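User: structure tokens for Ammonium transporter, please.
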Amino acid sequence: MALDVGSVWILIAAAMVLLMTPALALFYGGMTRATGVVNMMLMSFLAAAITAVVWVLWGYSVSAGEPAIAGIIGNPISDFALEATKPGQLLSVGFAGTFAMISVAIISGAIADRARFAPWLIFVPVWVTCVYAPVAFWVWGGGILSAEGALGRIFGEAIDFAGGTVVHTNAGIAALVLALRLGQRYNFHDRPQPHNTPLVMLGAALLWFGWFGFNAGAASTVEEAGLIWINTLVAPGAAVLGWILIEKLRGSRPSSLGVASGVVSGLVAITPSCANIAPWAAVLLGVLAGAGSAWAVNLKWKLGYDDSLDVVGVHLVSGVIGTLFLGFFALPNSESAGGLLYGGGWGQLVSQAVALLVVIGFSAAATWIIASIIDRVTPWRVSSEVEVAGIDEVEHNESGYRLVAASEDAGWSRED
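Assistant: Done. Predicted tokens:
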């Protein structure tokens, strides 16, 4: 069977989304301490590696198989990926798998500098299987939040084109749970700064590039793809302006970390709505998401929860903003009456809110249970001595940088 244009595009889009997890590793790696950059980046790479195996063996089936257990999950063996024979199905398996990879990798940023590696290796497959895949089934696989599902029939179907609820809200609330579970870093109140801002900026740039595949990969028409592309371009640009505005109001100068984080917050916010709002609305959404996330990031210092790399402030907050925004600004179409401002009434806003509440409640409870059980098997936290010295050397026997004097590197000394 010859490749058609649509299949080629899905292959390209999936490769772009796959790149986003290493890009996240750069983004997170630059934000953490110099003595924890290896550990942080490895958490993203191992999240991708483990999820790839889990997804092919059973994760895809749980997220997209025939409904099982009263429509709560897909049958783990009904669409076994290794035996998939339907034309194009393996492309769907691969494309969906890249979403699962970055979803669990996002969580790691909340526990930087203080989490042992072994518990993370256990957490990844369990969370993907028990939390991510069921939520993906509820929204995209015909489960309880879809048009055919129990809650969808009562409250209406929520719009989540590319993962504002499934990916970002889901991962963001899980990140908050792990941050609370592990507690504060020893130097939390010193407000640790990124050790390598060029890495942060490079990671943000690659994330922005990959996000065009993330959002537009499932586009069904040229017109829809064009709308998604423009919205994915303009929302993060507007979010940067919103972030800088909040920095200015706080009396701070515009920062590279703020610009990079603003880009990501705008990308997160446009994810659920990229195919369902007009470009002018995407500008407004970007400004709201950038400002909202910038404000939320500062809350962690006041509330005392140590979300190391601002996963909660960026992914959870912007994911919620982008999801609820559809209740007001969703364009009317053959499947939806549109948002409140288009005369569609309150129905879409209720649908969006119900989906958020269900996913937040389930993800929070399930993540807490998973994290608690793992902690009994192998403790999450490194010792205070390891945290002070740096986690890379102890956990991996490596360091991100080999810093030596020029004379030592050249093999001579002043006495020579």
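User: Anything notable?

Assistant: The longest strand covers residues 67-68.
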